[in-house]
Design brief:
By secondary structure, the protein is α/β, with parallel strands linked by helices. It has 5 domains: 155 residues, Rossmann fold (3-Layer(aba) Sandwich); 68 residues; 158 residues, no CATH class; 107 residues, Arc Repressor Mutant, subunit A, CATH 1.10.10; 150 residues, Serine Threonine Protein Phosphatase 5, Tetratricopeptide repeat. Helices cover 60% and strands 6% of the residues. It is built from 42 helices and 15 strands. The strands form 4 sheets. The chain has a 5-stranded parallel beta sheet with strand order 2-3-4-1-5, sandwiched between helices. About 5% of the residues have low confidence. It comes from Adlercreutzia caecimuris B7. GO terms for molecular function: DNA binding. This is Bacterial transcriptional activator domain-containing protein.
């Protein structure tokens, strides 16, 4: 016998390998293992899911670690004894009363060893020795060979509400991994475990790609591995790695939010093998492939951070020259500057283009000196293309002094006049030249006398200004400049009339339509979109006077948050200063989004939604103006969210509830506008913290709202199941029913199938509760209360025989024998007239008892 098995005996002590600084009990999972004691149990999940701690808790709970062996299957000694076939005999030698054997961290076994291990597990189970084995999905080669084995996978090991303190459980199921919730270094532990797991290189590459991207689609894996291998990897990872958040129906994924630096450090040693496995050659090529996917999904900052952290310097320079302008459009100015610092000593094939884009990036960050310096490099370069010189001059023109602007106009004006002469009456050339010409013309018109006219004319003719095109960002930036230029002259309502008013209103509608469509598609606003939203918000009162829409609160918050992030990245504003800066919202005070979430929650007044008798809303005890809730759709949306009591509803489900016959695209756009409208209705101090919406779901924040639906369900629960105070304080409960819930649920919201269903269900539940309370009160010697509740039940539903029976019983208990007879005849008439039926035999027997009893008995 070897000392390996002897040293594996627990002898009443927890193994040293599973000692945790903080222990979290999981009784529900232990009960799952205990229910299946006659089966071999395999805990198959990635590192970080708490497999070892669960096995240890089971061993301690069931056996106190007595007659338990904890076999370290990762040890070479395990493989040696498995090959020799001596493990079972050695276990019996050490402890004749062995009750449980835990095989911890079973490695990847070849076919022959997997069969031996399955046979070993079978022999132990036949000898009435329980077996628990822990392994990772990549190493699970034996569970399928053990007859009737129970496999507990990662989805069953995710932390649920019963195991986590209230309010600390992440909303995303993918983030409910034990190590992410309970371990300080959980993200690193999870990422490193995935990086070192025994997986094929292409599968590891797919896992790395999904963690890096954070969210995406099945097509991203297909682009990385090819169609067939991508589909295989998708199926394999979806079943075994729940922290990737794979949705098979939607073919999308939303992984647990791991810091990009953590993922990069964990997989650093595996980059070259992964690149070769997917056919990219080197790690730089693999990184750029993934960065391009991130960039196309609107994740420019994350794409740039990935390239800067992983790719070689030469690759960084090449990728910056190819994709830098798109990063500038997406507002990733800080990342552009950092990539330039990484690649500045490398040979840049697109040196002039890179200098121009870096100038624009510094301008976005508010660092004028650096922006002017890089712009001068391009303008003064003899070999630089003319269009790049004009782009750099435009950047300097927006940032410089009067003298700088004059000198930059010497570059821009001749180019613009030459284009006009070449183009004739039209505007020929590529879209980027058209866009540059528009920006130059708007910038030269600093007083705003022609800017709005230019924008409207160009946007009306341009087919390249769609919401999801690259040029859309430049168009939005031109609109922002035009609006600001026009506002610089002052825009009182009396001055906004005629053609000029139409132009401003047109630009506002066009820009908001573009940014709303981008939001519906789940894309960021981009730099141009952010500037347009803020510019329109600054003139919000004028837009309202023109009958044009003003930006919704959610859009303004998103734009402000993006600006704050850029300021922080550039070091131009301290975090505490940024949090305190007021933001103009067209005369409305507003907090910057994403700066200080905790004080916002503490200071937010409670939203109260009342649905019985009509849809009404109160914020901090003050009723929201009925005029604001005049929109039927807004009332219906608020009612649906309140009825689900803070539970998340998929956007598609809400669209189907509100517009059951609309096509998907129309429904999404209508829903987004409706959501923004409800946000503005429920805004408190310029912001709306009550409505929570992400890419997959919508809900009311349960910590910030209450409703009479909650009170109703509490009252029904008391009526149905009783309470200690029911027999002594039934008058108060009856008063609640008669006052608060006397009206129907949302009576004006007719035609909505979901609300109609809730209305019918609540009505039935209330009658059930009233009948049950009447029966209980009569049994408790409260005949008056029993009478009142039974009569209230009949008032709400005159077709319920159980309500008639409850009222007859209550009348008998109160000595109202003639009343009981009248109640029976009323029931008989109603059933005959409405349904053509006779009363049931039970009700008939009760009637016979009433007429046959002598009056003295009831005295």
């Amino acid at each position: 016998m070897t000392r390996f098995v002897y040293q594996s005996a627990c002898r009443g002590q927890r193994p040293a390998r599973v000692q945790a600084p903080r222990y979290h009990s999981r009784p529900a999972r232990v009960a799952l293992l205990a229910r299946e004691r006659r089966r071999a149990r395999f805990l198959v999940a990635p590192h970080g899911f708490g497999k070892a701690m669960l096995a240890a808790e089971y061993a301690e709970t069931m056996f106190g670690f007595r007659h338990v062996f904890w076999i370290n299957a990762a040890s070479p000694c395990f493989l040696r004894d498995l090959d020799e076939g001596s493990l079972a005999a050695n276990l019996e030698t050490v402890d004749e009363k062995t009750a449980l054997v835990v095989f911890a961290d079973v490695p990847l076994l070849d076919e022959e060893r997997a069969e031996r291990f399955a046979a070993l597990v079978g022999n132990l189970m036949a000898a009435h020795i329980e077996v628990v084995a822990t392994t990772t999905p990549g190493c699970d080669s034996a569970s399928g060979l053990v007859p009737d084995a129970l496999v507990v996978d990662g989805s069953l090991l995710l932390v649920d509400e019963g195991e986590c303190a209230a309010g600390s459980l992440p909303e995303e199921p993918a983030a409910r991994v034990a190590c992410l919730i309970w371990a300080a270094d959980g993200p690193s532990f999870l990422a490193e475990g995935c990086a070192h797991e025994e997986l094929p290189a292409d599968l590891r590459a797919a896992l790395w790609a999904m963690l890096v991207m954070g969210r995406g689609q099945k097509g991203d894996l297909r682009a990385l591995l090819g169609a067939d291998r991508g589909d295989e990897a998708w199926a394999c990872l979806g079943a075994a790695y729940p922290f990737l958040g794979i949705d098979e129906d939607e073919e999308t994924f939303r992984a647990a939010p791991l810091d990009l630096g953590v993922v990069v450090r964990a997989f650093a040693g595996a980059m070259e093998p992964m690149a070769r496995a997917v056919g990219c050659g080197r790690r730089g090529d693999l990184t750029c492939l993934l960065a391009d996917r991130l960039l196309s999904a609107g994740e420019g900052p994350r794409a740039a951070s990935l390239v800067g952290a992983v790719a070689p310097r030469a690759t960084v320079g090449a990728w910056l020259g190819r994709c830098g302008w798109e990063l500038v459009r997406q507002g990733a100015a800080g990342e552009v500057c950092r990539l330039y610092e990484v690649a500045c000593r490398a040979k840049l094939a697109e040196r002039f283009s890179v200098n121009a884009m870096v100038a624009c990036a510094y301008a976005q960050l508010g660092r004028r000196a650096q922006a002017l310096d890089f712009a001068r490099k391009v303008v003064s370069a003899t070999l630089a293309p003319t269009s790049l010189k004009v782009a750099a001059a435009l950047c300097a023109h927006r940032q410089g002094t009067a003298e700088v602007r004059r000198r930059m106009e010497e570059v821009m004006v001749p180019w613009l006049e030459a284009r006009r002469g070449d183009a004739g009456a039209g505007h020929k050339g590529c879209p980027s030249d058209e866009l540059l010409a528009l920006l130059v013309e708007v910038s030269l018109d600093r007083e705003g006398s022609r800017a709005s006219t230019l924008c409207r004319r160009r946007l009306g003719d341009a087919s390249w200004a769609g919401a999801l095109t690259e040029e859309a960002q430049g168009c939005l930036l031109a609109v922002a400049w035009a609006i600001d230029a026009r506002a610089s002259r002052g825009m009182p309502e009396s001055a906004c009339s005629g053609e000029e008013a139409d132009e401003v209103a047109y630009l506002a509608r066009w820009a908001l339509g573009i940014v709303e469509e981008r939001a519906v598609e789940g894309r960021s606003l981009g730099f141009g979109g952010e500037e347009a939203v803020l510019a329109l918000d600054r003139v919000g009162s004028w837009l309202e006077a023109l009958g044009a829409p003003r930006p919704a609160v959610g859009l303004v918050e998103e734009a402000c948050a993006a600006r704050v992030r850029r300021e922080r990245a550039a070091g131009t504003a301290r975090a505490e200063d940024a949090a305190a800066l007021p933001v103009s919202t067209g005369g409305r005070p507003m907090r910057r989004a994403g700066v200080s979430a905790a004080p916002l929650v503490r200071a937010t007044p409670l939203l109260e939604v009342r649905l019985f008798g009509g849809v009404r809303a109160f914020i901090g005890g003050r009723e929201v103006s009925p005029r604001l809730l005049a929109s039927r759709r807004s009332r219906a949306l608020l009612a649906l969210l309140a009825l689900h009591r803070g539970c998340e509803l998929a956007r598609e489900d809400l669209v189907a509830m509100l517009w059951p016959h609309a096509d998907a695209r129309t429904g999404r756009k209508s829903f987004y506008r409706l959501w923004q409208n409800l946000q503005s209705i429920l805004s408190a101090d310029g912001a709306c913290p009550y409505l929570v919406r992400d890419r997959y779901g919508c809900r009311l924040d349960p910590a910030l709202f209450t409703s009479d639906v909650m009170e109703f369900q509490d009252v029904v629960r008391q009526l149905l199941f009783g309470s200690a105070a029911l027999t002594t304080n039934w008058e108060r409960l009856f008063e609640q029913v008669r006052t608060m819930f006397s009206g129907e649920l949302a009576p004006s919201e007719t035609g909505n199938e979901v609300i109609d269903g809730f209305r019918e269900r609540f009505s039935l539940e209330l009658v059930d509760g009233l009948v049950a309370a009447s029966v209980r009160l009569r049994a408790a010697g409260e005949p008056q209360g029993a009478l009142w509740f039974a009569r209230a039940a009949l008032e709400r539903d005159a077709s319920r025989e159980d309500a008639y029976a409850a009222l007859m019983e209550a009348q008998l208990g109160a000595g109202q024998r003639s009343g009981a007879v009248a109640t029976y005849h009323a029931c008989r008439r109603h059933l005959a007239d409405s349904l053509g039926l006779d009363p049931s035999r039970q009700l008939g027997a009760l009637y016979q008892r009433v007429i046959e009893e002598e009056p003295g008995v009831l005295a």
